[in-house]
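Tutorial sheet, problem 5. The two components below are modelled jointly, 752 residues in total.
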Amino acid sequence: MKIAKAETPRLLLDPDRLKRNIDMMASRAAALGVALRPHLKTPKSLQVAARAVPNQSAPITVSTLREAEYFAEGGYRDILCAAATTANKLAHADKIQRETGARILLVADSVAMAAAADIRAGELGATFQFLIEIDCGEHRSGVLPGSKDLMDIAAALKTASNLELAGVMTHAGHSYALNGKTALADLAEEERAAAVNSAEALRAGGHECDIVSVGSTPTVLHARHLEGVSEARAGVYLFWDLAQASRNICRLDDIAVTVLATVIGHNRANGSLVVDAGALALSKDISANAFLPDVHYGYLCDAASMKRLEGLSVHDAYQEHGIVPVPDPQWFDRLPIGAQVRILPNHTCMTCAAYDSYDILHGGEIVESWPRVNGW
Amino acid sequence: MKIAKAETPRLLLDPDRLKRNIDMMASRAAALGVALRPHLKTPKSLQVAARAVPNQSAPITVSTLREAEYFAEGGYRDILCAAATTANKLAHADKIQRETGARILLVADSVAMAAAADIRAGELGATFQFLIEIDCGEHRSGVLPGSKDLMDIAAALKTASNLELAGVMTHAGHSYALNGKTALADLAEEERAAAVNSAEALRAGGHECDIVSVGSTPTVLHARHLEGVSEARAGVYLFWDLAQASRNICRLDDIAVTVLATVIGHNRANGSLVVDAGALALSKDISANAFLPDVHYGYLCDAASMKRLEGLSVHDAYQEHGIVPVPDPQWFDRLPIGAQVRILPNHTCMTCAAYDSYDILHGGEIVESWPRVNGW
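Model answer (structure tokens):
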């Protein structure tokens, strides 16, 4: 189907850009000498996974058990669920492991969680492998590198009847607040050191620590080296977005997903266009604006050429209406009612979550639809 | 299932509060002497619709054609799709009308849209009924009351081969920015006058104008009278949210939906709890903060009693992590790792859109699950 005929709003995916992004990160991980464990919380799609991780025995990352279930049923065997777990999630994790044979790696950052998980695992007759989360400076979650808390959790996992320590993981999420290459390289080193020092402390304490996992897209791209690290996690590089472009982590031309929208109104008195992509179609995330304050809810592009329509962005987002002020009335002629535009996402993980599929573009036509999974 | 055993995050719905809200608005519409056309873009659920609109011949409102299709297939016969349409949506609208026999009322606010719709309707061999949208002061979309634009669109619909004029509609969405009863009553009168004056102008010009539709929850609740209006639209009253409570349109105790979440971390160094409800589970909408700046991404409540945990709200929302600063370390004892909380939504339409079902609560147990529809 030609996109000009397509009902809107809908989520378009450019497979050539996706492939370029996948190849770029694969080369980067190879150059760093680490395994790549792509974070599939961004695409949540088996078809994207088939391209990013063609070998289903290779490691992947997810952020919810629904994703873990979906990818395990799709054939993936080594799945890290990267947010700290709780006892009320373990029946689900157990079901996935039993029914698919996949290994679901869980995360803990407290003795209390490890103790509760061991009791629940015992009730379920299950065994779970855990990574201990290290706080490398974001101060969101995790324990400090090499700390007593780290050793206490490792000890709790060792004495637990139904749990095993598989390694450590850390996430430099605060890299998203930086936009300088040196600062990012320094942060990548802090992230690496936090994980490696923790792994060494565990080994010195008599624990095995096979997995030493770091990652955020910006730090993986800017790390000077990743010595001692076994694997790197990154997700947003698959599709990119304005938040990453705003920090010069990618270029606008790398962004692989866009929202196709239609001009549904001309508000000449107000000097604005109305499009049928609002808060649900775009999300209310405005994270790109910290460094690019003219993004608002997203830059507009020409639907066919993907050239940016300079000066146009969605300023207000109602549930199903997006408001696009125009700097000049000639835009009412350039974008008549019924014209289509494409809108670049602020934060691709949030935007994609409103859709249950990607429409795959080839030569201005939608040639395929790839489903994605949402929810928990 | 006891909620204490439930995997989180999940969306809970209190059916008693829902019923109270439904009864309140039904009484209000009866007192005003108008039909109620509930806006089901908020719940997007047939089970909620069955309680709010038990008579399936009665009018309903939706904001997308996927909702229209879902409710038409579920038995509803009179469906207003309240955002301006475009030609690329008409094949879908036609399919719904043909397959279900429902009437899909569409909206136009330009001659260009009416002309394009007539051509497309001709190609489809379909007939569509239209309401003309009036701008009663929000200046988002619509034509000015009684304006030449209004009369031109009516003329275009009259000369169109495949379209019919069914009436006018307006929406005082700017009522969401007000929090005073007198200001809201004044705005309700502007909304009413805009619709009624437009209907009268159309009738004076020789057009029929059966439907005179107004509405936003705040204006319907505060209107002094709705003379000349045939129907009122309102949606958020079904569930309410913090944005409405922040403007004193409802009380916190009226809010019928909450997000059940689990404490997954204690960050004692930072003085914060981590919960497993982040940006996807809550949405990034922060509209309640204009009048209640301590809401951030949502107030926390005790999971069992629904009493507010005073001083606790989600300050930062990562994809799957919510950060809750605690004013006092005693909260780490009151809310140990694994404890559940419930989070009130900022903007219920946005929060619910992340879920594919509502869990219905009765006496602390989830007794039923009601599906909802998302997307376009």
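Marking note: The longest strand of chain A covers residues 257-267. Full credit if you identified this.
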